[in-house]
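ugh ok fine here u go
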Amino acid sequence: MGSAPQRKHLLLLTFLILQSIGQPLIARGSHITRILSDLVLGALCLYVLYIVLDRWGHRVIGLVLLLAVGSANAAHYMLSPALQATAAILFHLFLIAFLGFAVGVILNNLFHKTAIRGDDVIGAICGYILGAMVWANLFALAYLFVPSAFSVNTAIVMQLEDWQAKRSLFDYLSFTTLTSLGYGDITPVGQPVFSLTWLEVLFGQFYMAVVVAQMVGLKMAQAIKARGQD
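structure:
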């Protein structure tokens, strides 16, 4: 049985899936469960910091960004309604920077691999999910500036009035955009969301093509090396 570091990305993937399913359900309850929802997101980010950012320099950068995320989120609750929008903007900006940095580290580590393991493949999947979360926050940021750029079905439009539910809704939009699913219940109808949408689709296609090619190439190199040693 492998040690924890050898299956670290499997644990992270499990956390990402559970957070994606559980966070929207938790956030719909009382004030206590809303705070719990934020704590779950914070715990996920801390785990990304521990698992993905495994170099000292990376962890320092990640920790600074994560502290900024937490401060902006706390400020959103404590500030007056007039200043909450500013705190929300800072929250999304810092979270975009933190998650984007984590995706960059995952890709950099993968491209410097000389051999591929099962956990590395799972790590690439984690990078894909974290990339979708980056775009979710970009969509949320765009909504703060240009809410008219989105067309939202009346059945779910009330979610845009709630801090946690709104974030979950944009997570949903991001994943359906990244996978080119697009149910049509929330759609872009103006800039800058048009540009964000096609950029996310391009990112998803590029990510799959380049990452899969890298892993296939490493597996072929491993197979050729193994045959040469027989």
